[in-house]
Amino acid sequence: MLIGLWVTILGTCIVPELPEVETVCRGLRPYMEGKVLQNVVLHRSNLRNPFPPMFAERLQGQVVSKINRRGKYILVELPDYTWMMHLGMSGRIQRSSVADYIHQKHDHVVWQVDDMTFAFNDARRFGDMDLLPKGQMCLPIKTMAPEPFEIEAGDFYKRLQRTTRPLKTSLLDQAIIAGLGNIYVCEALWQSGLSPFKVSDSITLKQTQFLLKNICEVLERAIQSGGASLRDHKTVEGTLGYFQHQFRVYDQKGTPCLTDKCFGTIKREAQSGRSTYYCSTCQKN
């Protein structure tokens, strides 16, 4: 059911990326792990896809053993199932006390844990949920590459050597490296001084090592900032992330490049159906 392909309209829709999803997972763990799911309610029959048969009933009474993240998927481990969630474009999970909860428009899935209410709110309904038997996993996750924090530089280099696509396009391919999206690829390429249009198999091992280091550094800064809130992203507590205030290149068209001793200007071009932000002066490699 979960297909992992989400429509992105150039320059208008921001899909939650690894830092945003990790922020949500970290917000859920203290309140859900080791606890019993109660009063699970569906307010519609589908999100991007229909909910599985008896979805609410099968979740009811299950104990949450662990909440993991794989790429941009949230994985809630239960005794009998893995509850998989994808936030899509506008999905968010928000927590409130049972006493304070007021149903909001687009609260499509609601559940309780102890005295807390959790609501999956998704205005565009590009999010998705599935319930799989323990030990099974959907195809997108089965074919997903290692994530930036776990992949070896040598493996990353070999994966990039297999394609002649532009480097930016390759970094968005979940079969090459998992979890990256448009914002953080633009930021990491700028920080690495690499052109988004560089042919992937022309990258050197040294450049790959430097790129991987910068990808991890950008992601870690974003996670510590609660992700980026450009349109819909909020933390489980309902607060905004603030990494958007640290953008050096993304959405900075026309501003001076911040690279030391560079006098270039940030440009924006369409690339593979998405906005690519870069400095043509210092990102020539």
Protein model, in words:
The protein is an alpha+beta fold. It has 2 domains: 18-142, N-terminal domain of MutM-like DNA repair proteins, CATH 3.20.190.10; 153-279, Helicase, Ruva Protein, domain 3, CATH 1.10.8.50. The protein is built from 7 helices and 10 strands. It has helices at 18-32, 55-59, 139-142, 153-161, 167-171, 182-192, 205-224, and strands at 38-42, 66-70, 73-77, 81-86, 92-97, 107-113, 116-121, 128-133, 266-271, 274-279. The strands form 3 sheets. It has a 4-stranded antiparallel beta sheet with strand order 1-6-7-5. Helix 4 (153-161) crosses helix 7. The radius of gyration is 20 Å and the shape is elongated. The termini are far apart.
